[in-house]
Amino acid sequence: MLNAEGALVLLVEDELNMRRFLHITLKHNGYRLAEAATGKDGMDLARSRNPSVVLLDLGLPDMDGIEVARAIRRSSEAAIIVISARDSEEQKVAALDVGADDYVTKPFGPSELLARIRAALRRTPAAQGTESQSLGSFTTGELSVDFEVRRVISSGKEVHLTPTEYKLLSLLVESAGRVVTHRRLLERVWGPSAGEHVHYLRVYMRQLRHKIEPVPSSPQYIITEPLIGYRLRLPD
Questions:
Q1: What are the residue ranges spanned by the domains of the chain?
Q2: Would you state the pLDDT for residue 55?
Q3: Which of 143, 162, 179, 234 is the most exposed place for a label (fewest CB within 10 A)?
Q4: Mean pLDDT for back-to-back runs of 10 residues, the chain (236 residues)
Q5: CATH class for the region spanning 8-122
Q6: In the chain, which ranges are E strands?
Q7: Are 58 and 90 contacting, i.e. CB atoms less than 8 angstroms apart?
């Protein structure tokens, strides 16, 4: 699994004092760092430096951070953690919808942010490849997952999943046929402090179903257990 040593964090933040605070915090904890004060520079660095984690402010001077997150997600598997003073659920869902992996509301303490970064690193493809290879492969209906090569096929077509979507699917496969509670999914993917953020799951399960279900509005693979969690259908 990736750890702090050697992991590159891209910080996209225009507020100088916040950038200084994060620079000191991250460097002190062993992270390498790339910094940008605009959305354009952030997108350029994401392409050229290939960071493991992106810390992204939404209120950038040249463009909205939502669009930056969307652009980075198109070309990068880096974990994107939004850091923003915008605290409405609509803003959080909008960020998650375009591919962000987590959302931390300002002001926040260093311990919380570092915990979110560690959780994000556990969802990177390198970490997931090591953790999930023991699962081998899984097939139900026309959905198949080959964990050794990290490949998902649905209805004969290869499906590209974000690191968070892949982690969620892996957890459902681990417990195929059994209900996995909201809390368990949230804590395994986003960390112990995320147990109550059920809206994260709603967003990501909608996106995951859109990619793997033949008819997303009538799912046949990921079954909702109302008020409890989700269950992945076993092979017939």
A1: 8-122, 128-232
A2: 98
A3: 234
A4: 70 96 95 97 96 96 96 90 89 85 90 88 63 72 92 95 90 90 88 78 92 94 92 85
A5: alpha beta
A6: 8-12, 32-36, 53-56, 79-84, 102-105, 137-140, 143-146, 151-154, 157-159, 179-181, 222-225, 229-232
A7: no
